[in-house]
Predict the 3D structure of the following.
Amino acid sequence: MVHGVGGDDPHRLRILTYHGIEERPTGKWQVAREAFEAQMRFLRDAGYRTYTVAEILEKWPEPARRKERAVAITFDDGFLNNLTVACGVLARFGMKATFFIPTENIGVARRAPVSRALSSCSDSAMLCWNDLRKIRSMGHEIGSHSHSHDPVAALPRALAQQNVAHSKRLLESELKCQVVSFAYPYGHGGSFAPWTGEILRLEGFRAACTQMGGALSEGSDLLQLARIGIKGTDSLAVFRQKVSGSYDFLRWIG
Ligand SMILES: [Zn+2]
Protein backbone atom coordinates (compact mmCIF):
# COMPACT_ATOMS: atom_id res chain seq x y z
CA MET A 1 0.00 0.00 0.00
CA VAL A 2 1.29 3.43 -0.89
CA HIS A 3 1.08 6.18 1.70
CA GLY A 4 1.81 9.82 1.34
CA VAL A 5 2.42 9.88 -2.40
CA GLY A 6 -0.79 11.76 -3.09
CA GLY A 7 -0.16 14.20 -0.25
CA ASP A 8 -2.83 12.67 2.02
CA ASP A 9 -5.19 15.40 3.08
CA PRO A 10 -8.61 14.39 4.37
CA HIS A 11 -9.66 18.05 4.52
CA ARG A 12 -10.27 18.35 0.80
CA LEU A 13 -13.44 17.77 -1.21
CA ARG A 14 -13.48 14.57 -3.28
CA ILE A 15 -16.13 13.09 -5.55
CA LEU A 16 -16.72 9.34 -5.26
CA THR A 17 -18.04 7.12 -8.06
CA TYR A 18 -20.26 4.15 -7.42
CA HIS A 19 -22.11 1.95 -9.92
CA GLY A 20 -24.39 -0.74 -8.50
CA ILE A 21 -25.02 -1.54 -4.83
CA GLU A 22 -26.12 -5.16 -4.53
CA GLU A 23 -26.91 -7.75 -1.91
CA ARG A 24 -24.50 -10.10 -3.70
CA PRO A 25 -22.19 -8.19 -6.05
CA THR A 26 -21.61 -9.71 -9.48
CA GLY A 27 -18.74 -7.59 -10.80
CA LYS A 28 -15.86 -5.45 -9.56
CA TRP A 29 -17.83 -2.22 -9.96
CA GLN A 30 -20.72 -3.54 -7.89
CA VAL A 31 -20.39 -2.86 -4.16
CA ALA A 32 -22.08 -5.08 -1.55
CA ARG A 33 -24.81 -3.40 0.48
CA GLU A 34 -22.99 -4.27 3.70
CA ALA A 35 -19.76 -2.65 2.49
CA PHE A 36 -21.64 0.44 1.28
CA GLU A 37 -23.33 0.77 4.67
CA ALA A 38 -19.98 0.51 6.43
CA GLN A 39 -18.56 3.19 4.12
CA MET A 40 -21.46 5.59 4.75
CA ARG A 41 -21.24 4.93 8.49
CA PHE A 42 -17.53 5.75 8.39
CA LEU A 43 -18.23 9.03 6.55
CA ARG A 44 -20.89 10.02 9.04
CA ASP A 45 -18.87 9.06 12.13
CA ALA A 46 -15.74 10.80 10.81
CA GLY A 47 -17.76 13.99 10.31
CA TYR A 48 -17.76 14.12 6.52
CA ARG A 49 -20.10 16.63 4.91
CA THR A 50 -21.80 15.37 1.72
CA TYR A 51 -22.63 17.47 -1.31
CA THR A 52 -24.48 16.77 -4.52
CA VAL A 53 -22.61 17.95 -7.62
CA ALA A 54 -25.25 20.69 -8.08
CA GLU A 55 -24.61 21.90 -4.52
CA ILE A 56 -20.88 22.10 -5.24
CA LEU A 57 -21.71 24.27 -8.26
CA GLU A 58 -24.11 26.47 -6.33
CA LYS A 59 -21.51 27.31 -3.73
CA TRP A 60 -18.41 27.17 -5.95
CA PRO A 61 -15.55 27.78 -5.21
CA GLU A 62 -16.30 27.72 -1.48
CA PRO A 63 -16.58 23.89 -1.21
CA ALA A 64 -13.11 23.47 -2.75
CA ARG A 65 -11.65 26.21 -0.55
CA ARG A 66 -12.98 25.00 2.79
CA LYS A 67 -10.67 22.92 4.92
CA GLU A 68 -13.19 20.26 5.83
CA ARG A 69 -13.86 16.59 5.37
CA ALA A 70 -16.28 16.47 2.46
CA VAL A 71 -17.34 14.17 -0.37
CA ALA A 72 -19.88 14.09 -3.14
CA ILE A 73 -21.39 10.63 -3.63
CA THR A 74 -22.24 9.79 -7.25
CA PHE A 75 -23.68 6.76 -9.03
CA ASP A 76 -23.17 5.99 -12.72
CA ASP A 77 -25.23 3.98 -15.22
CA GLY A 78 -28.71 3.97 -13.68
CA PHE A 79 -29.04 0.54 -12.09
CA LEU A 80 -32.35 -0.20 -10.37
CA ASN A 81 -30.44 -1.18 -7.22
CA ASN A 82 -29.50 2.51 -6.87
CA LEU A 83 -33.10 3.04 -5.79
CA THR A 84 -33.94 -0.27 -4.15
CA VAL A 85 -30.70 -0.64 -2.17
CA ALA A 86 -28.55 2.53 -2.16
CA CYS A 87 -31.26 5.13 -1.50
CA GLY A 88 -32.37 3.42 1.71
CA VAL A 89 -28.83 3.42 3.05
CA LEU A 90 -28.31 7.06 2.06
CA ALA A 91 -31.56 8.04 3.79
CA ARG A 92 -30.52 6.24 6.96
CA PHE A 93 -27.33 8.30 7.12
CA GLY A 94 -28.98 11.54 5.99
CA MET A 95 -26.94 11.78 2.79
CA LYS A 96 -27.77 13.15 -0.65
CA ALA A 97 -26.20 11.89 -3.87
CA THR A 98 -26.05 12.53 -7.61
CA PHE A 99 -27.20 9.83 -10.04
CA PHE A 100 -25.78 9.98 -13.58
CA ILE A 101 -28.11 8.33 -16.09
CA PRO A 102 -27.45 7.22 -19.70
CA THR A 103 -30.91 8.10 -21.01
CA GLU A 104 -31.01 5.45 -23.75
CA ASN A 105 -31.37 2.86 -20.99
CA ILE A 106 -34.35 4.40 -19.25
CA GLY A 107 -37.55 2.62 -20.06
CA VAL A 108 -41.13 2.66 -18.97
CA ALA A 109 -40.34 -0.76 -17.52
CA ARG A 110 -37.19 -1.76 -15.68
CA ARG A 111 -35.63 -3.51 -18.64
CA ALA A 112 -31.95 -4.46 -19.03
CA PRO A 113 -29.65 -1.85 -20.63
CA VAL A 114 -29.86 -1.44 -24.40
CA SER A 115 -26.63 0.53 -24.87
CA ARG A 116 -23.90 -1.52 -26.54
CA ALA A 117 -21.45 -0.16 -24.03
CA LEU A 118 -23.39 -1.60 -21.10
CA SER A 119 -24.06 -4.99 -22.70
CA SER A 120 -22.00 -6.76 -20.01
CA CYS A 121 -24.74 -5.67 -17.57
CA SER A 122 -27.51 -7.22 -19.65
CA ASP A 123 -28.91 -9.13 -16.65
CA SER A 124 -29.28 -5.96 -14.63
CA ALA A 125 -32.56 -4.15 -14.26
CA MET A 126 -32.28 -0.43 -14.88
CA LEU A 127 -34.12 2.56 -13.43
CA CYS A 128 -37.27 3.68 -15.23
CA TRP A 129 -38.72 7.19 -15.33
CA ASN A 130 -40.92 6.64 -12.29
CA ASP A 131 -37.92 5.37 -10.35
CA LEU A 132 -36.01 8.52 -11.28
CA ARG A 133 -38.92 10.68 -10.12
CA LYS A 134 -38.85 8.82 -6.79
CA ILE A 135 -35.11 9.38 -6.42
CA ARG A 136 -35.59 13.09 -7.09
CA SER A 137 -38.42 13.32 -4.59
CA MET A 138 -35.98 12.04 -1.94
CA GLY A 139 -33.85 15.13 -2.55
CA HIS A 140 -31.17 13.57 -4.72
CA GLU A 141 -29.83 15.05 -7.95
CA ILE A 142 -30.21 13.47 -11.38
CA GLY A 143 -27.46 14.19 -13.92
CA SER A 144 -26.72 13.03 -17.44
CA HIS A 145 -24.32 10.22 -18.36
CA SER A 146 -24.87 10.95 -22.09
CA HIS A 147 -27.61 9.27 -24.08
CA SER A 148 -25.86 6.20 -25.50
CA HIS A 149 -22.97 5.72 -23.04
CA ASP A 150 -20.40 6.03 -25.85
CA PRO A 151 -17.11 7.75 -24.94
CA VAL A 152 -17.98 11.34 -25.85
CA ALA A 153 -14.55 12.28 -27.23
CA ALA A 154 -14.60 9.29 -29.60
CA LEU A 155 -17.71 10.60 -31.40
CA PRO A 156 -17.63 13.17 -34.20
CA ARG A 157 -18.24 16.59 -32.62
CA ALA A 158 -21.73 17.12 -34.10
CA LEU A 159 -22.90 13.68 -32.99
CA ALA A 160 -21.38 14.13 -29.55
CA GLN A 161 -23.24 17.41 -29.14
CA GLN A 162 -26.54 15.86 -30.25
CA ASN A 163 -25.99 12.94 -27.89
CA VAL A 164 -25.45 15.05 -24.76
CA ALA A 165 -28.13 17.58 -25.70
CA HIS A 166 -30.71 14.84 -26.32
CA SER A 167 -29.98 13.31 -22.94
CA LYS A 168 -30.37 16.67 -21.17
CA ARG A 169 -33.64 17.46 -22.94
CA LEU A 170 -35.13 14.05 -22.14
CA LEU A 171 -34.23 14.27 -18.45
CA GLU A 172 -35.49 17.82 -18.13
CA SER A 173 -38.81 17.23 -19.85
CA GLU A 174 -39.57 13.96 -18.03
CA LEU A 175 -38.38 15.07 -14.60
CA LYS A 176 -39.43 18.72 -14.86
CA CYS A 177 -36.15 19.99 -13.49
CA GLN A 178 -32.96 21.59 -14.66
CA VAL A 179 -30.07 19.21 -15.34
CA VAL A 180 -26.69 20.86 -14.88
CA SER A 181 -24.34 17.97 -14.08
CA PHE A 182 -22.79 15.45 -16.45
CA ALA A 183 -20.50 12.45 -16.00
CA TYR A 184 -18.37 11.29 -18.93
CA PRO A 185 -18.98 7.62 -19.77
CA TYR A 186 -15.73 5.77 -18.85
CA GLY A 187 -14.21 9.06 -17.73
CA HIS A 188 -10.61 8.13 -18.59
CA GLY A 189 -8.27 10.39 -20.51
CA GLY A 190 -9.52 9.37 -23.97
CA SER A 191 -13.20 9.90 -23.22
CA PHE A 192 -13.16 13.68 -22.79
CA ALA A 193 -11.21 16.63 -24.17
CA PRO A 194 -11.32 20.43 -24.05
CA TRP A 195 -13.81 20.41 -26.95
CA THR A 196 -16.17 18.04 -25.14
CA GLY A 197 -16.22 20.47 -22.20
CA GLU A 198 -17.05 23.20 -24.69
CA ILE A 199 -20.07 21.36 -26.16
CA LEU A 200 -21.34 20.56 -22.67
CA ARG A 201 -21.08 24.24 -21.75
CA LEU A 202 -22.89 25.22 -24.95
CA GLU A 203 -25.70 22.80 -24.10
CA GLY A 204 -26.12 24.26 -20.63
CA PHE A 205 -24.20 21.81 -18.45
CA ARG A 206 -22.16 23.48 -15.72
CA ALA A 207 -20.18 20.55 -14.33
CA ALA A 208 -18.74 17.36 -15.80
CA CYS A 209 -17.11 14.56 -13.85
CA THR A 210 -14.30 12.43 -15.20
CA GLN A 211 -12.81 9.30 -13.66
CA MET A 212 -9.41 10.88 -13.17
CA GLY A 213 -8.57 10.58 -9.47
CA GLY A 214 -7.89 13.43 -7.13
CA ALA A 215 -9.33 16.09 -4.86
CA LEU A 216 -11.07 19.26 -6.00
CA SER A 217 -9.29 22.58 -5.68
CA GLU A 218 -10.24 26.17 -6.40
CA GLY A 219 -8.40 25.86 -9.71
CA SER A 220 -10.38 22.76 -10.82
CA ASP A 221 -11.96 22.93 -14.26
CA LEU A 222 -15.67 22.41 -13.52
CA LEU A 223 -16.07 20.62 -16.84
CA GLN A 224 -13.28 18.12 -16.03
CA LEU A 225 -13.76 17.34 -12.35
CA ALA A 226 -11.75 14.56 -10.71
CA ARG A 227 -13.58 11.55 -9.26
CA ILE A 228 -12.46 8.51 -7.34
CA GLY A 229 -13.90 5.09 -8.26
CA ILE A 230 -15.05 2.84 -5.42
CA LYS A 231 -14.83 -0.85 -6.24
CA GLY A 232 -16.53 -3.89 -4.75
CA THR A 233 -13.13 -5.27 -3.80
CA ASP A 234 -12.16 -2.21 -1.73
CA SER A 235 -11.83 -3.00 1.96
CA LEU A 236 -12.97 -0.34 4.44
CA ALA A 237 -9.30 0.51 4.97
CA VAL A 238 -8.85 1.13 1.23
CA PHE A 239 -12.05 3.20 1.16
CA ARG A 240 -10.73 5.36 4.02
CA GLN A 241 -7.47 5.85 2.15
CA LYS A 242 -9.34 6.80 -1.02
CA VAL A 243 -11.40 9.48 0.72
CA SER A 244 -8.38 10.86 2.58
CA GLY A 245 -6.20 11.21 -0.50
CA SER A 246 -3.81 8.24 -0.47
CA TYR A 247 -5.05 7.36 -3.95
CA ASP A 248 -5.08 10.88 -5.40
CA PHE A 249 -1.92 10.14 -7.34
CA LEU A 250 -3.66 7.46 -9.39
CA ARG A 251 -4.93 9.16 -12.49
CA TRP A 252 -7.42 6.47 -13.39
CA ILE A 253 -8.52 3.59 -11.23
CA GLY A 254 -9.98 1.06 -13.63
ZN1 LIG B 1 -20.97 4.53 -17.13
